[in-house]
Design brief:
The chain is of the alpha+beta class and 179 residues long. It is built from three helices and ten strands. A hairpin with a 3-residue loop joins strand 1 and strand 2.
Length: 179
C-alpha cells in the first residue's frame, strides 16, 4: 500500500466555525506537496417527522450562497466532545421550537472529504412536542412542514441542494417509506 506522510500542519487562519491549515505532505513517489485542510468541530442535524408524517423544514438565509435555503435543522457542535444527539436536540428546539420524545441516528455524512474533516450525524426526531423557537441573535428561521413527496420533487428540481438535507430525506425515504 502506498503511503502518504504529513510532514507539517500550519495554522493559516482561526475562524469562528473552521480553522484553515496548510499541510506539507510527502506523497508515495517522494514528492513534497502543499494541501489545504479545513478543521471543523463537527455538526448534528435532525429530520423532524410530525404526527402526519410530514417533515419539518427550516428556511433561512445562507451567506455563502447569498440566498435563502430550505434545510433540515442543523448546527455545529459546541465542542468536539459534545454528543451529537445533544446537539441535534438543541438545534431542533432552537430552530423549530419542537422537542422530540425519541431521536434515532439515521446516518453520518462527511461533507467535503477532499479538504475538510466535517462530520454530520443526522437523526430522525419522532413524537414531536410543539413549543417555541429559541433562535440565536443572528438567526431568522421560518418553519414549515412538507410531505416526503414534495421534498423529493424539490430535490430533483434543484430547489433543495443542501447535501445534508438531500442525504437525510433520501435515506429517510428509503428506510421508512420503502414498499
Amino acid at each position: 500500500m502506498e503511503e502518504f506522510k504529513r510532514l507539517e500542519r500550519t495554522l493559516v487562519a482561526h475562524g469562528a466555525i473552521i480553522d484553515y491549515y496548510q499541510d506539507t505532505m510527502q506523497v508515495p513517489n517522494g514528492n513534497i506537496v502543499k494541501w489545504d485542510f479545513i478543521g471543523h468541530k463537527g455538526a448534528a442535524a435532525v429530520l423532524p417527522v410530525d404526527g402526519q408524517g410530514r417533515i419539518i423544514m427550516v428556511r433561512q438565509y445562507r451567506n455563502a450562497l447569498d440566498r435563502y435555503t430550505l434545510e433540515i435543522p442543523a448546527g455545529g457542535l459546541q465542542s468536539v466532545d459534545e454528543p451529537t444527539r445533544d446537539a441535534a436536540a438543541r438545534e431542533l428546539s432552537e430552530e423549530t421550537g419542537y422537542e422530540a420524545k425519541e431521536l434515532e441516528l439515521l446516518l453520518t455524512i462527511r461533507t467535503t472529504v477532499a479538504f475538510c474533516n466535517e462530520r454530520i450525524d443526522i437523526y430522525v426526531a419522532h413524537h414531536l412536542i410543539p413549543g417555541s423557537q429559541h433562535l440565536d441573535e443572528d438567526e431568522y428561521v421560518q418553519v414549515n412542514a412538507y410531505t416526503v413527496e414534495e421534498l423529493t420533487e424539490m430535490i430533483y428540481s434543484g430547489k433543495i441542494q443542501d447535501s445534508k438535507t438531500v442525504a437525510a430525506i433520501m435515506a429517510y425515504k428509503d428506510k421508512y417509506l420503502r414498499r
